[in-house]
Design goal:
Length: about 350
């Protein structure tokens, strides 16, 4: 079985090339794959002809675009097929001044958050490092995006819980951040977690790692247990403590994400409790008004409620409201579930599109 080359680091490529090849050959192939974006290694003329011929038998293992859906706000949602036929979603959000690629880390998700459509899929399997990096490479190539123009951001906020696939997420991160690899700045790559406490410390210990975002989503232990049952195993109190000891770099802040659910976790009291919970942490807060979906038993609070919540948090912490992107094509946060049609949203959800 030929190996998929995308996802390999220099040491893996040395194994593939064998001991007869000098060490710099593996580095040449590595640069070719990630830095130069070569898709046919037989065209990498810096390699000797025999080596190019030998590499012909190896597949790159890039995910294949099955279909895509364009939102009227310019967000594009890709449905990508992996080598075993399973499908995942990747979203590109072009904006004034920056482009963000939102990638998946698992097929489905085993964490049972009550407001998230991906949760309804359950978990099928972890993605390999190559499948994680491959999503970025496919979207970059299709849209002519470059890592070095300071526009490109990558967020691991698609399907799956990244910290339950930590070795592959870290390996993919190294390739994304390595100047000899894809070469993105660590400031432009973010991993988001529902709060897998032991893995947070492990992630923080990695030499080459992206920024970290924590999905808070509740202001008390009990409320979080209801919304994110994983809190029964990893308590909110302990999650905050893990954040307190997290080794932030000098330039870095933690991001806390908070999905606002009408009448559930969106009161002024909740906002004040969030401020108290996060006191003394170097952080910012991103508020996301619920993106609705079929089978989700919550409602989105109105704009005034969101603004009132933000006003309270903002007195103490930087606090932003995330605009929903790609709502009309099921591409927004918590909406990824491999929807193969861009269902028109029915009222009242259609009204949300005016928010963009
Ligand atoms: N599993 C990781 C990353 C993917 S989810 C995590 O939970 O952090 C990315 C973000 O989308 C999380 O902050 C999550 O709280 C949020 N989210 C999930 N469902 C949502 C929904 N229906 N509306 C708005 N945001 C949602
Ligand atoms: Fe998984 Fe994140 Fe969705 Fe929770 S919010 S079910 S952790 S993808």
């Amino acid at each position: 079985m030929p190996h998929a080359l995308i996802g390999m680091e220099v040491a893996d490529l040395e194994q593939v090339l064998g001991p007869a090849e000098p060490g710099y050959r593996a580095r040449q192939v590595y640069r070719g794959l990630y830095k130069q974006g070569v898709r046919d290694l037989t065209t990498l003329t810096s390699l000797p002809r025999e080596l190019r011929t030998a590499l012909r038998g190896h597949d790159l293992g890039l995910p294949e675009v099955v279909s895509y859906f364009d939102s009227r706000d310019t967000t594009r949602r890709y449905l990508l097929k992996l080598q075993d036929g399973k499908t995942i979603e990747t979203v590109l959000m072009p904006e004034e001044g920056r482009d963000t690629i939102c990638i998946s880390t698992q097929v489905g998700c085993p964490v049972d958050c009550k407001f998230c459509l991906t949760a309804l899929l359950g978990i099928e399997r972890n993605l390999t490092a190559g499948e994680i990096v491959g999503q970025v490479l496919v979207v970059m190539a299709r849209h002519g995006l470059r890592p070095d123009d300071s526009r490109l951001n990558v967020v691991m906020m698609g399907m799956g819980e990244p910290l339950l696939n930590l070795p592959n997420v870290l390996k993919a991160s190294r390739i994304l951040l390595d100047p000899q690899g894809i070469g993105l700045s660590a400031r432009r790559v973010t991993v988001s977690t529902s709060g897998i406490i032991p893995r947070i410390a492990e992630f923080g210990g990695a030499a080459m790692r992206p920024k970290l975002a924590i999905s808070l989503n509740a202001s008390t232990e009990e409320q979080r247990r209801q919304l994110m049952p994983i809190t029964r195993k990893y308590h909110l109190r302990d999650l905050i403590e893990a954040c307190r000891v997290y080794p932030l770099r000098t330039w870095e802040k933690l991001t806390f994400e908070y999905v606002l659910l009408k009448g559930v976790n969106d009161s002024c009291t909740d906002a004040r409790r969030v401020v108290k919970l996060l006191a003394n942490l170097r952080c910012k807060v991103n508020l996301i008004a619920l993106n609705p979906g079929p089978g989700i038993a919550f409602e989105r609070p109105d704009d005034a409620r969101v603004a009132a919540f933000q006003a309270i948090v903002r007195r103490s912490l930087p606090c932003f409201v995330r605009k929903p992107r790609g709502l009309d094509i099921y591409a927004a946060c918590g909406q990824l579930k491999r929807t193969t049609e861009a269902h028109p949203l029915v009222a009242p959800h259609a009204a949300l599109l005016n928010l963009n």
